[in-house]
# Entry
Amino acid sequence: MKAITVEPGKPGSARFEHVPEPDPREGSVLVEAIAVGVCGTDVEIAEGKYGWAPPGQTRLVLGHESLGRVLDPGPRASLRKGDLVVGIVRRPDPVPCPNCAVGEWDMCRNGQYTERGIKEIHGFMSERWRIEPEYAIKVDPSLGILGVLLEPMTVITKALEQVVAVGQRSFWQAKTVLVTGAGPIGLLAACGARLHGMEVHVLDRVEAGLKPDLVRALGAAYHSGSVLDLGFDPDVIVECTGVGSVIADSIQKIGAGGVLCLTGVGGGGLSGYAVADVAAKVVLKNNVLVGSVNANKRHWYKASQALAEADRAWLARLITRREKPEDFRKALERTPDDIKVVIQFAGV
Ligand SMILES: [Zn+2]
# Structure
């Protein structure tokens, strides 16, 4: 079969090539790939900045935002031939740490977890892949190709769960949510927060086009410019840019008792930033800054329900480009009009 592979750590090493059929040790369920979403992590791996091949191998099959169709469910009867499934990305560390021991691998304490298409396990950008039945999440068949949005939705499902969990520390009537960044994660955050019945605001750099249209179609408000110019102090901010100045402004702008959930991974920021002044603001307003990454099985289940509840036509507009596997290089290039680019292996 053919797969998109990369030699981690070696820039420009990605290629679409023949590889052996998936190893039965990777799981008893055999799946035909339909589509795989591309995200910033894939781009980083292709640029040689991140990623690890499986032990004893030099190349890694790329891809962690999967959607496939069951070809052979194997001996366990929980799945049937033809079911649409998405593969959970992370696997618990082998020690295991206390959190992995209870199935909260998203909260892994020792960093020895593995991840499909990222860290030591092959990903999903191959014509066929295998998975353990307990790590295959069935998606509503009416979602069709939109099931490829499940993995990013799990990230948001966990983040919103974290916000709600933190909110339980005091009496809290949160009404307003600001999402910074209108990329796929930000837009899915806005969608998820609307499903929670919140008043949602989204801020991004662009002033016109698809992103503002998509935000308004959710019944949410769109803003461009600075967080500091907003006419209200948000109860919740879901930060999806990873940009230093946006994070700094968000800490300043979050309302009293508010929760700032950081989901973006960036680097650098503002030099000469007065950290104690920032801390004083956080202290005097009882704020919580909470980081959130990855998702466990509970979030995957909840995300699959949220996705099934969301408006199909709206979700479809998030997929702005579909590329063939042989054109994977085009899929790894981001244009300003792209929201989610997917590599399509087969029809739904
Ligand atoms: Zn662990």
Q: What stands out?
A: Residues 44 and 168 are 37 Å apart (CA to CA). The pocket of zinc ion is lined by residues 92-93, 96-97, 99-100, 108-110, 113 (CB under 6 Å). Residues 150-167 form the longest helix (18 residues).
